[in-house]
């Protein structure tokens, strides 16, 4: 989940002025290690969300207008699952249906929740996040 937060924060920060930022500048704004920034930004670059520029004023730049990047694309870029179970209760060999099938039920439930969440995230853009943050700052 932290990869998503890093990518979201970085993309909103990059979108706000459209200028390139080094991993150190992003690291300072995100309050995290520049190595983590570079790892996440490489995933974003691979998925067309950011571009890189070499040289003195080089760094990362937003790859598209913030109106054209939605939060689902960010999740897909960092390749994580919103909700998953790495452990299942019960025993599939049990004669008790609750013991045998609870794991399968939870997997289906989490799959449904992820699908619904992705449909919501698809509707929210970087520009929307930026606007919401500006409103929060105005109401400070």
Automatic annotation (TrEMBL):
Coiled-coil blocks: none
Highest taxon, organism lineage: Bacteria
InterPro entries the UniProt entry points to: Tscrpt_reg_Rrf2 (IPR000944), WH-like_DNA-bd_sf (IPR036388), WH_DNA-bd_sf (IPR036390)
Classification via Pfam families: Rrf2 (PF02082)
Annotated protein name in UniProt: Rrf2 family transcriptional regulator
Organism: Peptostreptococcus equinus
């Amino acid at each position: 989940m932290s990869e998503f937060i890093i990518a979201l924060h970085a993309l909103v920060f990059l979108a706000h002025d459209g200028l390139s930022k080094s991993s150190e500048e992003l690291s300072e704004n995100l309050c995290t290690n520049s190595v983590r920034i570079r790892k996440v930004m490489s995933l974003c670059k691979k998925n067309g969300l950011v571009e890189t520029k070499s040289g003195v004023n080089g760094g990362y730049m937003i790859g598209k207008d913030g109106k054209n990047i939605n939060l689902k694309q960010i999740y897909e870029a960092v390749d994580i699952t919103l909700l998953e179970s790495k452990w299942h209760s019960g025993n599939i060999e049990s004669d008790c249906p609750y013991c045998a099938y609870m794991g399968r039920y939870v997997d289906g439930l989490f799959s449904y929740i992820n699908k619904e969440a992705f449909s919501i995230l698809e509707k929210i853009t970087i520009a929307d996040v930026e606007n919401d943050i500006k409103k929060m700052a105005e109401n400070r």
